[in-house]
Amino acid sequence: MRNVTLILNDGTRFHGKSFGYEKPVAGEVVFNTAMMGYPESLTDPSYAGQMIVTTFPLVGNYGVPPLTIGSDGIPLFMESNRIHASALIVAHYSEHHSHWNAAMSLAQWLKNEQVPGITDIDTRELTKVLREHGVMMGKIILDDEPNNIPEADYEGVNFVDSVSTKEIIRYNEGAGKKVVLVDCGVKANIIRSLVKRGVEVIRVPWNYDYISLDFDGLFLANGPGDPDTCQVAVDIIRKQMNQSIKPICGICMGNQLLAKAAGASIYKLKYGHRGHNQPVRMVGTERCYVTSQNHGYAVDAASLGADWEELFVNMNDGSNEGIRHKTNPWFSSQFHPEACSGPVDTYFMFDKFVEILQK
């Protein structure tokens, strides 16, 4: 293992060892508090441009499942067909793995995908630094190549455009109701969850004008980066809402894009919500759910128009976790009801959307 150093943009340094692909890399350093699910997290397009710090100390012990594609074209065990995160930063990498479905080690997978992985990092201290200062840009350099220092390109970059489909893809074609899914970086389990409920999914690029298509409902997917870089998508959503009251559901960035189309504003969280243990409460009830989350931006609920209201709020910091229109069938969640990995307490969001489609 070669010696490597993580350098944060405030000058803080963390020294460790390389166990993945050996190259310098730069990106936004974010921490995830989940205890499991690194194959799903690494293949989640929402992590594009980011280096993931896992707060759980042991990573790699169950290896990596095969990239198996189902007959419907959807990956069975991953959230997309490749790793999207820029790097993985862990406290202890387990060199030995054991799992019935493991096809290779985490180290081998990272090397195959040319993604750096570093271990022997004090991730507890690193997380404390990120919590106190806020999310920072960082660089991973190889100690024996001190002059090979990369530069991060993150602010203002439209990462959605880099991960969204470039063509229209149909799933479950010929099934019941038709749902247009705006792909901002959709996770595979969102598609699985819709297909499982017997609808046809029409997956379109993030900036595609779908107004003229034949469909019964609109689904706005998750995605990476700053939602303010996706104004084209917002304008199309707003046009759709002005022309029709067809059901709309959004997840994560979908929540933010729907809110922007409704006239609300977005702000960046200090260090975001990433993990499987975020508690949210459904507004107007005492029902609280444990949710899987991965986002660095939030909707300013105070900027919502009179026709809109909050649907969920975060119990840790009071930030918005979902919105709904007071009369039309338009609603969304900031968290991931499809989880994968994570708790499935809020899977009912898909049931509610499909139920409205049938009316």
UniProtKB/TrEMBL annotation:
Enzyme Commission code(s) on record: 6.3.5.5
Domain of life: Bacteria
Catalytic reaction equation(s): hydrogencarbonate + L-glutamine + 2 ATP + H2O = carbamoyl phosphate + L-glutamate + 2 ADP + phosphate + 2 H(+); L-glutamine + H2O = L-glutamate + NH4(+)
Keywords: Amino-acid biosynthesis, Arginine biosynthesis, ATP-binding, Glutamine amidotransferase, Ligase, Nucleotide-binding, Pyrimidine biosynthesis
GO biological process terms, semicolon-separated: 'de novo' pyrimidine nucleobase biosynthetic process; 'de novo' UMP biosynthetic process; glutamine metabolic process; L-arginine biosynthetic process
UniProt region (CPSase), positions on chain: 1-177
Transmembrane segments: none
Active site: C252, H336, E338
CDD domains in the cross-refs: GATase1_CPSase
Pathway given in the UniProt record: Pyrimidine metabolism; UMP biosynthesis via de novo pathway; (S)-dihydroorotate from bicarbonate: step 1/3; Amino-acid biosynthesis; L-arginine biosynthesis; carbamoyl phosphate from bicarbonate: step 1/1
SUPFAM superfamilies, per database record: Carbamoyl phosphate synthetase, small subunit N-terminal domain (SSF52021), Class I glutamine amidotransferase-like (SSF52317)
Main enzyme class: ligase
Short name of one Pfam family: CPSase_sm_chain
Binding residues annotated for L-glutamine, in chain numbering: S46, G223, G225, M253, Q256, N294, G296, Y297
GO terms of molecular function: ATP binding; carbamoyl-phosphate synthase (glutamine-hydrolyzing) activity; glutaminase activity
Every Carbamoyl-phosphate synthase small subunit N-terminal domain range: 2-141
Similarity field: Belongs to the CarA family.
Subunit comment: Composed of two chains; the small (or glutamine) chain promotes the hydrolysis of glutamine to ammonia, which is used by the large (or ammonia) chain to synthesize carbamoyl phosphate. Tetramer of heterodimers (alpha,beta)4.
PANTHER family recorded: CARBAMOYL-PHOSPHATE SYNTHASE SMALL CHAIN, MULTIFUNCTIONAL TRYPTOPHAN BIOSYNTHESIS PROTEIN-RELATED
Primary role: Small subunit of the glutamine-dependent carbamoyl phosphate synthetase (CPSase). CPSase catalyzes the formation of carbamoyl phosphate from the ammonia moiety of glutamine, carbonate, and phosphate donated by ATP, constituting the first step of 2 biosynthetic pathways, one leading to arginine and/or urea and the other to pyrimidine nucleotides. The small subunit (glutamine amidotransferase) binds and cleaves glutamine to supply the large subunit with the substrate ammonia.
HAMAP family found in the cross-reference section: CPSase_S_chain
Protein name: Carbamoyl phosphate synthase small chain
Organism for this UniProt entry: Prevotella micans F0438
Chain's gene name: carA
